[in-house]
Amino acid sequence: AFSSSEELVLVDRRSSGIAVLTLNRPKALNALSDSLMRALAEKLQQVDADAALKAAVVTGTGKAFAAGADIKEMNSRSSYSDVRHDNMLAHWSAVSSIRKPIVAAVGGFALGGGCELAMSCDIIIASQAAKFGQPEIKLGTIPGVGGTQRLIRAIGKSKAMELVLTGEMLSAEEAEKAGLVSRVVPVGTELDAAVAVAEKIAGFSTPVAQLAKECVNASQEMSLAEGLRFERHLFHATWGLEDRKEGFEAFVAKRSPEWKHR
Ligand code: CO8
What we know:
alpha/beta, 6-stranded mixed β-sheet, 4-stranded mixed β-sheet, 42% helix, fatty acid metabolism, lyase, single chain, binds octanoyl-coenzyme A
């Protein structure tokens, strides 16, 4: 058993119905090793399975959210057949299959895999000190877990192409202007801001929040016509929930709803 200081991902489970997951390899700027990403996926899956938790926050430490996939670890794989056989980084997709909302609190570097991890979360809150980039080209490789796909959807082709082809970073302010992050807050307040957003979400019906997340994410994968049909089906499906009935009845009766989360 590891003591908590050796845990790669620290979990702070709060009575407000959220869990704060802190990437904890500060000496390596939270480089995302295989074991760190497996720990993160496992803890997020535990959040998903825990009925008392409604949302998660993922954050980093010190000057890094995460400075990328672990370059030293990846360098130990020497050939195409090695990385293909191991399907290197494929297990990262576990993050995007989490059903509960995840808010990323980015206080520093979110580079390479770190930027891709932040983009796999649902909302990014950044501090003024945050920096985003896909520097893989400087290492002689390309982004491997969404940097060429999610980034273009977030900020458009020209800006995404410039980041991917030059390896330059975006400041927090530029990232906000480009639409990569939802909000920039003063240095040191990003975790509180992200927790407040997660707690706000946690105050609503869990199944409804999950349906809403699924619908918004579907827009990234579907044509507009398919997406609108998908949305209509899930909208209608909320009529199968006690919480939909409760929300409407509470409004009509001018009282606060009491969510049953079913
Ligand atoms: N992997 C491993 N170790 C890292 C990483 C990383 N990504 N980033 C930083 N570290 C380590 C450094 O090696 C250093 O360790 P040590 O103290 O043992 O020398 C420690 O963290 C502190 O880093 P620095 O001394 O470099 O700190 P600075 O403040 O001087 O610089 C930077 C900060 C600018 C963030 C700098 O560390 C840097 O450029 N890091 C690498 C950023 C990068 O290139 N990230 C992309 C990685 S590749 C990636 O994520 C690919 C994902 C998909 C790939 C798919 C491939 C098929």
